[in-house]
């Protein structure tokens, strides 16, 4: 069975701050994209684990339909990728690998249209995939690409809670404990996002737990 390097993939590959796309389709897709965003937060953070996979699978059908209708809308692409990544974390196995491969395509397509959309969320999400998915020959994991995308996300949105959280998690994975602590501290102190209370609360809880773990490691050295 294929297993991801990090169990945080199930918790979410991101809840980036929503900023309306600047494409001609923005007015048509803004509300559906926000609906997917909010339903994802409910599934990822407010749904009991036994029901979470089914909730995410149903949401994946809706996010895919949105991409089919608006194939060049970066917001739709990003949230379809996030939903698929989260579903992969719940499902595991070979089915998970096919889901994250499609998520990678979504994020790459969003970057090709506008890499700053949703505060650079495609870079955050793609970077998270690259360090959490196994490397060759099983998957496409690549730490160098993970670092590149995560740093680009921070260049776009240096105070973003998700960009800082996932960069901290990546640095922790790399053994850079001091760097990880600094990134987690920034994630915890990140500005609140209106309408994103569930996601913010969940992400801060994750960052707080990781920071405590990192500080214990630093204290033991």
UniProtKB/TrEMBL annotation:
The record ties this protein, via InterPro entries, to: TPR-like_helical_dom_sf
Q: Which keywords, in A-to-Z order, does the entry hold?
A: Signal
Q: Where does the record locate the signal sequence feature? A: 1-26
Instruction: Please report the name of this protein according to its UniProt entry.
Output: Uncharacterized protein
What's the source species for this entry? Luteimonas terrae
């Amino acid at each position: 069975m294929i297993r991801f390097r990090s169990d945080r993939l199930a918790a979410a590959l991101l809840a980036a701050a929503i900023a309306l796309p600047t494409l001609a389709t923005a007015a048509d897709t803004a509300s559906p994209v926000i609906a997917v965003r909010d339903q994802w937060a409910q599934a990822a953070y407010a749904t009991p684990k036994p029901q979470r996979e089914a909730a995410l699978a149903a949401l994946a059908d809706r996010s895919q339909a949105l991409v089919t209708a608006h194939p060049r809308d970066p917001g739709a692409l990003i949230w379809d990728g996030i939903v698929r990544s989260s579903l992969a974390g719940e499902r595991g196995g070979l089915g998970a690998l096919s889901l994250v491969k499609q998520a990678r395509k979504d994020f790459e397509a969003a970057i090709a249209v506008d890499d700053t959309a949703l505060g650079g969320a495609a870079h955050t999400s793609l970077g998270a995939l690259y360090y959490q998915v196994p490397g060759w020959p099983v998957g496409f994991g690549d730490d160098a690409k993970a670092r590149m995308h995560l740093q680009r996300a921070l260049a776009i949105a240096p105070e973003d809670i998700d960009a800082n959280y996932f960069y901290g998690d990546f640095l922790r994975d790399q053994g850079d404990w001091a760097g990880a602590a600094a990134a987690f501290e920034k994630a915890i102190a990140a500005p609140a996002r209106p309408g994103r209370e569930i996601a913010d609360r969940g992400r801060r809880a994750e960052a707080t737990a990781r920071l405590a773990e990192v500080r214990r490691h630093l204290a033991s050295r």
